[in-house]
Fold this protein.
Amino acid sequence: MKWIINALKGFWGILKSPSKAAVGIVLFMGFAGGLMFWGAFNTGMEATNTEEFCSGCHAPIVAEIQETIHYANRSGVRAICSDCHVPHAWTDKIVRKVQASKELFAYFVTQTINTPEKFKERRAHLAEREWARMKKNDSLECRNCHNFEFMDFSEQSPRSVRQHSTALANGENTCVDCHKGIAHNLPDMHKVEGWQ
Amino acid sequence: MKKSILLTLSITLTLISGFTFSEEPATGLDRGIGGVESLRGDTELETTRPADPMKKVPRDQVDIESSYVFQPPLIPHHIRHYEVSLNANKCLSCHSWTKAKQMGATKISVTHFINRNDEVLADVSPRRYFCLQCHVTQADAKPLVGNSFERVKSLQ
């Protein structure tokens, strides 16, 4: 017991006493350390934004997107999972990543979506959470690419203009209110507002 | 020894002559299609020819008129990734009776509420639920064979 206290005291002594190295070296080491930590942290976080990482747990969903317009289209622009499901701004992204740690718990410990059958059963819950999130942030991830201000109604079909120039323009509705399941199959929609 | 050399030689010769024969320009008869050209074009049965380019469905077109009485109306817009499944029916989110007026869409007809025993139901009959069984989009495709179909007088 005594030796632990002694060790701690010694360590505190090192922290308390001024370093014998020159100030420049200490500053440089702090700077380099900070740089390395920051780089590694962001690289790690970017790694959790790749399709491969997502499909590790959400495999059925990654297959579904492949026939939709956000994956296969004439101009070769592609939105991957993180473009829609992870906020782009840094602080928002951190918040979402911390929330996602609870989802890791659901996958690995309570095992709610680890088989296709369980996933199917859980789909409504997962979808509703995502719809609520996008409703709350005014479909921010859609708007990262689809800017309402830049929409040319004369290029849209009459059906689209009717919706976009009214409910979307006056802020009554947001993108996800109508555009559900644009990149995935839908859960049971019979109780969902606007569907049947 | 002599015999075996002769045998190998003759076999080789037969094989070579066989190959040269098959490399001759093939006529319709010995291409496995019996000299008949089908709608697939002049293609051997065994070979898979490249698929035709996909037909493009226009985003929006004017309503396509019916050609006969009780024809299921054709879909005048594109429907890419509109889900019609057990879980969801994207068509009905505009064409159902509750939504049609607000969306400026055509209502589904009352016949869709009748089941096969002629009983009128309160909602779309399951046998009429899968829209794309009868209603389809139209692309500008050239007919493969000519036909002289004409609309009935009453629809002309």
Remarks:
- The helical segments of chain B are 2-22, 92-95, 100-103.
- The mean pLDDT of chain B is 81.
- The interface with chain A takes residues 59-60, 77, 80-81, 83, 85-89, 92-94, 96, 98, 103-104 of chain B (CB under 8 Å).
- The longest helix of chain B spans residues 2-22.
